[in-house]
Write a structure and sequence with these properties.
This protein has about 650 residues and is an alpha+beta fold. About 35% of the residues lie in helices and about 25% in strands. A hairpin with a 2-residue loop joins strand 5 and strand 6.
């Protein structure tokens, strides 16, 4: 089930699924310690003796308020004759999640409405050894284990604090004790539970005929009882309504960038652009890690998550934010990379948000030989993104300490990690994390990384080192043509496996081949690139009602059983956007540039109503597949829109020169 609505402040993140249930709770790191473990925190309504959990019987519209990370949720139940309007946010300054609920009685009679909230915490990501209890000092429910505390309270009818509650334990069957009580409209008032505890609270509201009433519900997160109790007191002092307003105002101010000049783009494009920037911000931990995705549903497939910092994904996000003028949002990311970089100068596959090494999906042995279990592009793209950051702010004071501990260290590794005969990089794992070989995309990223390192070396007057990095980049660029171009097919090959005298080429068409242009290695009008791009467009563009671009021929990842047999793979947002990038680079006039807009509009059509972009979508019905949101999808969208606006300015400038 896709996660439609993430809300976050960089330390505390909650995800809502398409049934408007809280499904993921991360604290104190974004992406580490999911305290719900993917279990739904259910939300229901009791009225006139009937009970209804949020589900198919509710009409739901899950969105955000414009230019904000405050949600704008509409819920309607025809049978119960009720409408609910909800707003959710995590406060900027305190680790407190706030929900406002406006209940609208659609009948002509006075009614009592009871809202129910259930909490199935799995603190530290497991169900063992927790405690839930009613705290009479704060009039709240508290769940805690070791150094993780969550306080739950509410305000309704001008009264503060929890009045109706029940704590229980999960049965052997997995059923929760309080669920049946919720459905009866009453909670048993059980004041504590331990082991595998859960809890429920209920808000009772009196609604006049055709009338409305408001309630506020919140969850505070902290490391101790005193911390969450103090946050709760601050909520009383500031009021939940003012907390919502201050967060909304902040995000509206944050997203407002007059300098972006997006006026000439369709509103459907600019809306997803703004939403993408905001979604990216929710996935960045305050300690620097940029997380790939925080959707716990992926655990069902591989018993692992996307809640890690990949150098590849992080670099693309940092580059996109920098290009859009949000460089400060990713400053700590580069410090994070410098901290976790190995002593040899490379990044491993991925890291936990606290900087520790995450699970590694790559083997140290390939065909019985020891190899480095890395994707070399992650190291290289970090340098590429850092130069884009510098171009945005010209913040030499920030860059200076990174020059020795990140830039030179990583660049020297890229120089040394080469085949002595072909001068191309040694094999590593590909960007899709499936194959070990020499990959055209990896070569392109290494060249881009070395060019960035050379720019930094020149910046610090380290001319001999700049010449060295540029020389290696030039050598690699020449060897791409010698070893990775197929003369018979008249296009580049995806990969090469080392054989005597060169490489045995993998001729599968892959969207990543376009990186030769999108990373600035080859001219998009180079005949070899034109023929490569034509093959990509012809073979990877889906001929289904949804359309979109697949990653590569024969891609089976997350392919649904009801997919057509003749498709190359599912359409991905990044693949579709990389195709757009190539054509934007290739455009020589406004007509050609405007022809790329449908690729951006395709993303909007296949986004969730909230504006969230998944990793990929179903090839026939367009439903989101795999994780949602995926930071890489949103960063690719931001990057592509910025490329479009830059190209538009350049073409207009050239036209003005021609008129003169």
């Amino acid at each position: 089930m896709p996660k439609d609505l993430p809300v976050s402040n960089g330390s505390f993140l909650l995800n809502f699924d398409s049934d408007y249930q809280i499904r993921d709770i991360y604290f104190p790191y974004i992406g580490q310690e999911n305290h719900s473990n993917g279990h739904p925190f259910q939300f229901g309504v009791w009225v006139d003796g009937q009970y209804s959990w949020m589900g198919p019987e509710w009409k739901k519209d899950l969105r955000y308020h414009n230019n904000s990370l405050v949600t704008d949720v509409f819920l309607k139940n025809e049978t119960l004759e009720l409408e609910l309007k909800c707003s959710d946010v995590v406060d900027l300054d305190m680790n407190i999640y706030i929900k406002k609920i406006e209940v609208n009685n659609l009948t002509n009679k006075h009614r009592q409405i009871r809202l129910f909230f259930s909490h199935e915490f799995n603190l530290y990501g497991n169900e063992i050894g927790g405690t839930a209890y009613f705290d009479p000092r704060s009039c709240s429910i508290i769940h805690y284990k070791i150094n993780r505390y969550f306080l739950i309270s509410y305000r309704a009818n001008d009264e503060w604090g929890v009045k109706h509650f029940g704590c229980g334990r999960r049965k052997a069957s997995g059923e929760l004790d309080t669920f049946k009580e919720n459905e009866n409209g009453e909670l048993n008032g059980e004041a504590s539970a331990w082991g595998t505890p859960h809890s429920s609270v209920s808000i009772w509201m009196e609604l006049p005929a055709k009338g409305k009433a408001n309630a506020y519900y919140w969850i505070a997160a902290g490391m101790s009882y005193s911390e969450v109790a103090n946050i709760n007191l601050e909520v009383h002092k500031i009021t939940p309504e003012n907390l919502l307003k201050r967060s909304s105002k902040y995000w509206q101010t944050w997203i407002h960038k007059e300098s972006l000049q997006l006026e000439e783009l369709p509103k459907s494009v600019t809306d997803i652009f703004s939403r993408s920037l905001l979604i990216l911000r929710t996935q960045i931990d305050n300690n620097g890690a940029i997380i790939a995705a925080n959707d716990s549903d992926i655990i069902r497939f591989g018993k692992d998550t996307y809640s890690y910092m990949w150098g590849r994904d992080g670099a693309f996000v940092a580059a996109a934010l920098s290009k859009a003028g949000y460089s400060h949002a990713c400053m700590k990311y580069f410090d994070f990379c410098a901290r976790v970089l190995s002593k040899e100068g490379y990044l491993f596959q991925h890291y936990n948000p606290d900087g520790s090494l995450a699970s590694n999906w790559h083997s140290w042995l390939v065909e019985g030989k020891e190899v480095l279990p890395i994707q070399e592009d992650s190291t290289a793209l970090t340098l590429w993104a850092l130069w884009i950051y510098y171009q945005s702010l010209h913040d030499v004071e920030f860059i200076r300490p990174l020059y020795s501990k990140l830039i030179k260290k990583a660049a020297d590794f890229l120089v040394d990690y080469r085949d002595p005969q072909t001068h191309l990089p040694l094999p590593s794992y590909d960007l899709w994390e499936e194959r070990y070989a020499l990959h055209t995309y990896t070569v392109a990223s290494v060249i881009a990384g070395l060019r960035a390192a050379a720019n930094f070396a020149n910046l610090f007057l380290d001319y001999s080192l700049a010449e060295k990095y540029n020389s290696v980049a030039n050598e690699m660029t020449a060897e791409i043509n010698n070893h990775l171009y197929d003369d018979k097919l008249k296009r580049f090959a995806r990969s090469g496996s080392r054989i005597e005298g060169g490489y045995e080429l993998d001729k599968v068409i892959d969207i990543s081949l376009l990186s030769l242009t999108t990373l600035g290695i080859l001219d998009p009008r180079d005949p070899r690139m034109i023929s490569t791009a034509e093959a990509v467009r012809e073979q990877l563009w889906l001929k289904t009602p949804v359309e979109g671009c697949a990653r590569y021929e024969g891609d089976l990842y997350q392919r649904a059983e009801d997919s057509p047999n003749d498709i190359p793979g599912n359409p991905w947002f990044i693949s579709t956007l990389w195709l757009a990038e190539y054509y934007i680079d290739h455009a020589e006039n406004h007509e050609q540039l405007q022809a790329t807009l449908p690729y951006l509009e395709w993303c909007g059509k296949n986004a969730l109503p909230s504006g969230v972009l998944a990793e990929q979508v179903h090839p026939v019905n367009g439903s989101p597949l795999c994780v949602s949101p995926l930071t890489w999808s949103h960063s690719a969208y931001v990057w592509t829109v910025m490329l479009y606006t830059e190209k538009d300015k350049m073409l207009k400038k050239n036209n003005n020169k021609g008129d003169n």
